[in-house]
Specification:
Strand 3, helix 4 and strand 4 (about 95-100) form a beta-alpha-beta unit. The chain contains five helices and five strands, in the order βααβαβαββα. Helix content is about 35%, strand content about 15%. Strands 2-1-3-4-5 form a five-stranded parallel sheet, sandwiched between helices. Bound molecules: 1,3,4-trihydroxy-5-OXO-cyclohexanecarboxylic acid. 1,3,4-trihydroxy-5-OXO-cyclohexanecarboxylic acid (DQA) binds near residues 10 and 78.
Length: about 150
Amino acid sequence: MKFLIINGPNLNLLGLREPDIYGRQDYAALCRFLTESANDAGVEAELFQSNHEGAIVDRIQAAYGVFDGIVINPAAYTHTSVAILDALKAVAIPAVEVHISDVSKRESFRQVSYAGMACVKTYMGLGFEGYRQAILFLRDYLRDGGHGA
Ligand code: DQA
């Protein structure tokens, strides 16, 4: 089983950016955590981070026929990007949305998630652990033939 794990804008600045919200661990630590979580779950994972909406759309399109599942934290594009929503819908690869912070308790502009409309599940407010749960959920969901949501 092959998963593509996408992180959107400013997540490369983890550790530096608003540590009270996003924690003190950096993006390299997140990458180690993701690789370890995928290994433990028995799935192959490719990691991708970009600050550019079009690059994320391109990566989702290129995932068609290659990846079984997508774990995505679209970061700020969560709340603005119909293009990322459309790309997820176009490839129709089962996807799970992750947010490090609990966006439901933050500003009103963070209350809409476009990407989430194409995802089978969302994890938020669990820090890095949300990604691990997303990987495990997606693995079981796909093993179950896509009926586990
Ligand atoms: C985020 C939440 C978004 O609202 C924000 O723009 C981010 C990170 C999170 O992981 O909590 O960049 O997706």
